[in-house]
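Q: My hope is that you can spare some time for a protein that puzzles me. Underneath my words sits a plain record pairing an amino acid chain with its backbone structure tokens. Those tokens are not coordinates but codes from a learned vocabulary of shapes. Thank you; the sequence and its tokens follow:
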Amino acid sequence: MKELQKRIEKAKLPEHALKAALKELKRLKSLPVQFPEHSVARNYLETLLDLPWSSSTTDTLDLQAARLTLEADHYGLQPVKKRVLEYLAVCQLTQGLKGPILCLVGAPGVGKTSIGRSVAKTLCRKFHRISLGGVCDQSDIRGHRRTYIGSLPGRIMAGLRTVGVRNPVFLLDEVDKLTRGGVHGDPAAALLEVLDPEQNSSFVDHYVGLPFDLSKILFIATANSVATIPAALLDRMEVQYSAPSVHTLNQL
């Protein structure tokens, strides 16, 4: 308990998160260790403290260095690399990332994930890949409510907990393979809330239960085809086809 108390004191939590953490610590102290609720409360408190409420990296964008990095890491794909550089240049000028989400479309193995890694490397940001293939439950995005046994945060918050900063590059892999609708809610609608700049500055994961600012994250999506991307999501994206040219294939 003393360790958790010290972590709360040292953590730079916003007021609403600090209030929730202290309330949960008080509850935890009142629960016998052998009670299942004790481990549930402790896991929740540790999740709160692990989230990067204020931790971030500093962008060090050098467009010339970015161009060299993309050229060194990827052979061909000139239109995609050009658009990525333009996108980064606009972000640098506007000091923000409020534009459309880049969606790299192409067959498996053409370098979509690698381009995402290169963008993170260029910005000196942490990189995390979130697989969306086969996701059919909105709770995978929004998290599970704590009333359920074995509840966990959604993949977005879990990713933030992993990287430990609030401004990483998140690669949303296989966004075209999200299952739409269903008895467990619509994961595409949940993802739209994550990507919408009008909403994502106060995203509430069902497990965490507190607003968290996702607007500092640079999202890049990948897909094999645009045909199965839900229309509402597609409207938020700028599609770039990352297929090698005939000249590149001949060179290979």
Observations:
- Residues 63-251 form a domain with the Rossmann fold fold (CATH 3.40.50.300).
